Fold this sequence. Notes:
It contains 10 helices and no strands. By secondary structure, it is mainly alpha-helical. The two termini are 53 Å apart. 30% of the residues are buried.
Amino acid sequence: MKKDSWFHIALRWKGSVVPEVLPRSLLCGLFGVFVYILHISNIRVSLPILGSIIPNIVLGLLLVFRTNTAYERFWEGRKAWGLLVNTVRNLSRQILVAIAEQEPSDRQAKIAAVKLLPAFAIALKLHLRSQQVNDELAANLSLEQFERLKTMNHPPLEIAFWISSYLQKQSLDEKLDRYQLSDMSQLLNQMVDVAGICERILRTPIPLAYAIHLKQLLMIYCLSLPFQMVDQLEWLTGPIVALISFTLLGIEEIGIQIEDPFGHDANDLPLDNICNTMLRNIEDLIIVSDSQIITNFRNISL
């Protein structure tokens, strides 16, 4: 890591909450300047007693609880997608290795089924972002499947159904024994469980009453700061109020940004990168399995 990386991160604008928080912080600072103008105009505005209205420890605990709750949602979403990556790897490996190939068409069907696994992840990503099925999915689906998904309310579930149907067919054709089918079905169930976990996070936001109350407390606290400080700080009241407001509002904004971790913001989960990783993993496994088939064929010929 470079020596200046700490300063590079500290001064970074993109990905920070500065664009969202700075206007509100400056507004609080301007209010502090207004209070200072009143103060030097011999208008009694110094009210240190306001410092006891909202104790610092109460506001701090509320902000910490807000941020921790949001981060728990973020981390749960990350764990769910990590589980999905591992499950896709395991299930694709088992499909490529365990299912017997008796005809050339079996190989094509197997590869088509394996490609449905990253398609599930991509469809889940689009579903969580409330996006329509797009060309990002087309490379891993047949034209018929792609058109079919456009009409579905829950594309990931439809893809899971296709994978399950393929596994059942292989079992009926005696290309897969029941124990292998059971193991693969459990892995497929885990993929569907991941979709459920992500939907629970997405559909269960922080209670509105809590969010409103915290914003009200922050507003009261930030706007009462000038009255507490103007007598001691005088002309520094505006800058100090802006700085304190920036700190507190920034903590709240971080919680807002990470509580829904499936979007496109810089602080959201890198779902595009995760899906691309799955695609690369599947491509590698297909190449490896192709090489293994060629090697086995040569050994048989010899």
